[in-house]
Design a protein that fits this description.
By secondary structure, the protein is of the alpha+beta class. It is built from 4 helices and 8 strands; from the N terminus they run ββααβββαβαββ. Strands 1-2-3-4-5-6-8-7 form an 8-stranded mixed β-sheet, sandwiched between helices.
């Protein structure tokens, strides 16, 4: 477990509550970003998280403050990179460096696995996320696609490490 300033701790989520906690954060962050009512649960996000966790070497990393989950990332190794599938921070913790800390941990993990880069897909009009990734050193890879589930346009970002 790693400790950050402001009483935030990072740990690989392995307990039974990790997936539902991450799903609720993802659902809340998406609702706030899209200016929709906040959901009571993140149940609709659980299948996506579980699907990615079945990938070989996948890890769910949780950020907690005072025992409460405030952010997460989910990633898995690829042949030459570590792919980040999800990164979300509870809206109440936006701007508190939780996303940056999760990205640093993922980068360190990629480095320990001898991966040359981090990669991810981000919704093309998600200005908040694009700013976080740019500050962390990610660059546009020049690839776009339409997400099969949401129909939104996504852009591929890469960070060489």
């Amino acid at each position: 477990m790693n400790s950050l300033n402001d009483n935030v701790e990072l740990a690989v989520g392995s307990d039974p509550h990790a997936v539902p906690e991450a799903a609720l954060i993802w659902a809340r962050a998406t609702a706030v970003r899209d200016r929709r009512p906040e959901p009571a649960t993140g149940d609709d996000k659980i299948p996506g998280i579980q699907r990615r966790l079945r990938l070989e070497g996948a890890k769910l990393l949780l950020a907690r403050r005072n025992g409460k989950c405030v952010g997460f990332t989910l990633f898995a190794p690829r042949e030459e990179s570590l792919e980040i599938f999800y990164l979300a921070v509870d809206p109440d913790s936006w701007g508190s460096s939780v996303a940056s800390a999760l990205l640093v941990w993922a980068e360190n993990h990629a480095h320990s696995m001898c991966r040359a880069s981090l990669e991810l897909w981000v919704i093309n009009d998600n200005a908040r996320a694009l700013g976080v990734y740019a500050r962390a050193g990610f660059v546009d890879a020049g690839q776009v696609k339409r997400d099969e589930t949401s129909g939104q346009i996504e852009r591929r970002l890469v960070k060489q490490i």
